[in-house]
Design goal:
Layout (H helix, E strand, L loop, with lengths): L4 H39 L8 E4 H18 L3 E5 L6 E4 L1 H18 L5 E8 L3 E8 L31 H11 L4 E5 L5 E8 L5
Helix pairs in contact: 1-4, 2-3, 3-4
């Protein structure tokens, strides 16, 4: 049997595709296990955060960098609106990045190809208000009260299913900071998730 260069190249592409598929499956399983463990810790009243002063700009930049590959795969534009002199917040960096990953990941998931996802920060007196907006199908009014419930899976307008434990954990993280998280928007007009974080010394 003669193995031509084109045949070898085809086999390499097939192998790479299989490896990529396995890697994505492992990543999804790892994320699911982490969410389940975190949810169990929250419900047991053992959830804790470690807060330090963090740069607003660096938090948003890291969140955008993590989301970039997923956005590129769907040809979705990522936009950032953060004033250069946004200052700092007092938070658990890893947990806040987890919140961003959930919100931005969901926004990308439910936004059609070619759409836009925007991340913004608005410095206030004692806190900073962050938001993640998208140009997706929006959220039905009757679903809004349940978005942050544990295990809730609502039917998305584009038929992609619900968001699982992500938003439940996101709310628990923000609650642990003594801050707030909520959602704005309406069906067919995109959605906007908003959360706050305290300034150092605020209280």
């Amino acid at each position: 049997m003669n193995i031509t260069p084109s045949h070898f190249s085809l086999e390499r592409r097939r192998t790479r595709k299989q490896v990529d598929t396995i890697a994505r499956s492992v990543e999804r399983m790892s994320k699911l296990i982490d969410h389940l463990l975190t949810a169990t810790t929250i419900e047991a009243g053992q959830f804790a955060i470690t807060c330090r002063e963090q740069s607003v700009l660096e938090l948003v930049d890291e969140a955008m960098q993590i989301a970039e590959p997923l956005a590129n795969a769907k040809k979705i534009k990522l936009k950032r609106y953060v004033p250069r002199l946004s200052g700092t917040v007092f938070c658990d960096r890893d947990r806040v990045i987890q919140v961003f990953s959930t919100l931005v990941g969901n926004a990308i998931k439910f936004t059609p190809e070619g759409g836009t996802v925007s991340v913004a920060a608005k410095p206030l007196d004692k806190e900073v208000c962050f938001s993640v907006s998208d140009t997706g199908p929006g959220i039905a009014v009757e679903q809004v009260p349940h978005l942050f419930d544990r295990y809730w899976k609502g039917g998305a307008p584009n038929g992609q299913g619900g968001v699982g434990l992500g938003l439940f954990i996101a709310k628990s993280v923000i609650d642990a900071h003594g801050a707030r998280i909520w959602v704005e928007g309406e069906a067919k007009r995109g959605s906007r998730f908003v959360f706050t974080l305290p300034r150092p010394g605020a209280g």
